[in-house]
Write a structure and sequence with these properties.
The structure holds two protein chains of two kinds. By secondary structure, chain A is an alpha/beta fold. Chain A is built from 27 helices and ten strands. Chain A has three domains: 162 residues, Rossmann fold; 72 residues, Helix Hairpins; 346 residues, no CATH class. In chain A, helix 23 packs antiparallel against helix 24 and helix 26 packs across helix 27. The chains are: A alpha/beta, B alpha+beta.
Chain lengths: 619, 72
């Protein structure tokens, strides 16, 4: 029998090269999302069975180069240097091969066992690019496998080859720069006595002026950037071009002008907004009509149980009530909103709409100090805050993700919309609701501008616009499941526990105590009846419930009979802006950390209190 | 440069970091490019790199640092 050691394979490649497609195509059920040590950039891992071997597959973040200048690149570099793995699969989009080769050359400098996967050869052929993989193999001394990952072609062979390379530890042939640079590399290695295996890599990176590598070698910090940085990068670039010319032949391919015409039609000027906004409306309309319907059906039995339970006295009934409430809270998020919204998000990513919307909204978003891409979490936020927070992963830097996460919490999700419609809509009319939503957007924009004063501005826009692609539903479903799983298995149990904990308040009859304890705040500052105290606390569980609880507390379904118009508006404002729901808090805690969660809760409550307090003078 | 006109990339000016970023996205001196969306609007625009067969959206700040020469 063969040894049963797990083979660790890492996937590296540029953005949009189909790396994640390969990952998803083989990912088993045990896929785990984890953080890179020292950063918050995530990478995904999975264990798969391949024949009689177990493979641990790691999907590194997509990077154009390995210069450690942004978080994703730094994470990939740290992984390659510090983690233990057997082989790297360098996935290349064959249709943009000349550019992809630069990353390949950088990977070769790491002197690690490697396989090249020439992905999307069908698209390359469409463009008239024919690649001689044998020549490429000779040139780099490592196996090259052609594939069309999205159709599942070449994937088995790729992993066969990768396992072979992992066993033989076959490394690529190192390439030489011109003499001047080589001499300098030699000198650098001697100066810092780093003659070992990775010495050449370190020397090159130090000469390139890479601050991460410099910080790892004593004395290297003082080396100034100098002329070598430019010389090395230019030479590597030239080598990539030369290699491309050697291994590929270009026939006059068809240039797709149709796609350009579609883009020009959809994205020029105001049409860009029109296109994006109609897309948003379509999505939200579907989510609201479909989601509301699913929610009603799914929650019907649970709500019935709750109704029956509420008729009985005794602590055990209250605890069961808490349990059911927690399960219902999870269902209310997952089924109608989380899964459909993640589905739409994955679909827009795979079709290629997402970067186009980011482009269309870039000017507006930059006014509040954000990248065009941040419009996506905002729109999803109108459906549900949890998938909106998940979608912040499309943003490039941690600080941007946090900025957007803070603002997304202020967007009224479907649960809060229920309250807005039932309160302002019912008692003040349709136009009041429209005005209320505009007011909400205004507050989001102002908050964005204020936050922008304290943080670094969003980087200038430069993103690739990938070709339109037909999504493969199988892949889309896998992606949705992958993203939703973390919430379902980790956040939901906490939600249920929290819900049971809340029910203890009822068991020990703390409601009146809490109401009178909060009275100075609810009555004094917010100008609301003191019975809302407990409602605001329970509202954290599921915000749409605060409506029903309010009616129960007032003892009437006609809220206006015991609350003034001003109180109704203030109640809605506070419910809309204060602490996000428990599901959101748990997700934020798990993905952004405790300190940020507390900051976000404080930020929301502060805005809610301020707005409610100020509106006392208006209504 | 106007939408629909072709041009050749001549050179980059400005910081090394920016230049690397632009080059990493596959825009090199000598490449033939064409603006396909948005040059007249004042905001970001999309170019097609005809030589490489890719499309890139970029803001004005970055675009100002790429020197091009129009092709008739």
């Amino acid at each position: 029998m063969k040894e049963e050691r797990t083979i660790k394979i890492a996937l590296a490649g540029q953005p949009n090269c189909g790396k994640s497609t390969i990952f998803n195509a083989v990912a088993g059920y045990k896929a785990i999302v984890s953080n890179f040590p020292g950063t918050t950039v995530e990478y995904t891992k999975t264990k798969i069975k391949f024949g009689d071997r177990t493979i641990e597959l790691i999907d590194l973040p997509g990077t154009y180069s390995l210069s450690t200048m942004d978080e994703a690149e730094l994470s990939a570099v740290k992984f390659l240097l510090e983690e233990d793995f057997d082989v790297v699969i360098n996935v290349m989009d064959a249709s943009v091969m000349s550019r992809s080769l630069e990353l390949t050359l950088e990977l070769i400098e790491y002197d690690i066992p490697m396989v090249i996967c020439l992905n999307m050869i069908d698209e390359a052929e469409k463009k008239g690019i024919v690649i001689d993989e044998k020549k490429l193999e000779e040139k780099f001394g490592i196996p090259v496998v052609k594939a069309i990952a999205i159709k599942g072609k070449g994937i088995r062979e790729l992993f066969h080859t990768a396992i072979e390379v992992a066993e033989t530890k076959r490394k690529p042939l190192s390439f030489k720069y011109d003499e001047g640079i080589e001499r300098e590399i030699e000198r650098c290695m001697e100066k810092f006595s780093i003659k070992d295996k990775k010495g050449r890599l370190f020397a090159i990176k130090i000469l390139e002026g890479d601050s991460f590598f410099k910080s790892m070698i004593r004395g290297a910090e003082e080396i100034e950037e100098g002329k070598w940085a430019e010389a090395i990068v230019k030479e590597r670039h030239a080598l990539a071009m030369k290699t491309f010319e050697e291994v590929a032949r270009i026939f006059k391919g068809k240039r797709s002008t149709l796609e350009n015409r579609i883009d020009a039609f959809l994205l020029t000027g105001w049409r860009g907004y029109l296109f994006s906004i109609s897309f948003f409306f379509l999505v939200l309309f579907l989510i609201f009509s479909l989601g509301g319907w699913i929610e009603e059906i799914a929650l019907f039995p649970l709500d019935k149980i709750l109704e029956v339970l509420s008729k009985y006295q005794g602590p055990s009934y209250r605890l069961v009530e808490g349990l059911v409430q927690g399960i219902a809270g999870g269902i209310a998020v997952v089924l109608p909103y989380l899964l459909p919204l993640l589905f739409v998000l994955s679909l827009t990513e795979d079709i290629g709409i997402l970067p186009r919307i980011a482009f269309a909204f870039d000017s507006i978003m930059h006014r509040i100090g954000l990248h065009g891409k941040s419009v996506i979490p905002f729109v999803i936020g109108y459906g549900c805050t949890v998938p909106a927070l998940m979608s912040t992963k499309i943003l490039e830097t941690e600080s941007e993700r946090k900025k957007v996460a803070l603002l997304t919490g202020l967007i009224p999700c479907s649960a809060r919309t229920t309250v807005i419609l039932a309160m302002i809509g019912f008692y003040a009319g349709f136009y009041a609701v429209v005005i209320y939503y505009l007011f909400n957007l205004f507050i989001v924009a102002i908050s964005g501008r204020i936050i922008a004063q304290f943080t670094a501005p969003a980087p200038g826009l430069i993103i690739e616009i990938p070709p339109y692609r037909i999504p493969y539903l199988n892949m889309v479903f896998k992606k949705v499941w992958f993203r939703a799983k973390d919430f379902i298995f980790r956040a939901w149990p906490v939600l249920i526990t929290g819900s049971i904990f809340f029910s203890l308040l009822k068991v020990f009859n703390l409601e009146d105590g809490i109401n009178s304890f909060l009275k100075p705040f609810t009555e004094g500052v917010l100008g609301l009846p003191s019975v809302v105290g407990i409602i605001l606390i329970f509202g954290i569980l599921r915000k749409e419930l605060s409506m029903i609880m309010l009616m129960a507390a007032l003892g009437t379904t006609d809220v206006s009979s015991s609350m003034s118009m001003g109180e109704i508006i203030r109640f809605t404002i506070f419910i809309t802006f204060y602490i996000p729901c428990l599901a959101t808090i748990i997700y934020t805690w798990r993905n952004f950390g405790g300190r940020f969660t507390i900051l976000a809760a404080f930020f929301n409550t502060f805005i809610a209190t301020l707005l409610t307090f100020l509106s006392k003078f208006l209504f | 440069m106007k939408t629909g006109k072709r041009a050749k990339v001549k050179d980059f000016i400005g910081g090394w970091g920016l230049r690397r970023k632009v080059m990493a996205l596959g825009i090199d001196p000598g490449d033939e490019i064409m603006v396909i969306v948005g040059m007249e609007e004042g905001g970001p625009f999309i170019i097609e790199n005809i030589t490489k067969g890719t499309k890139i959206a970029m803001g004005r700040g970055i675009a100002r640092k790429i020197i091009v020469e129009e092709i008739e």
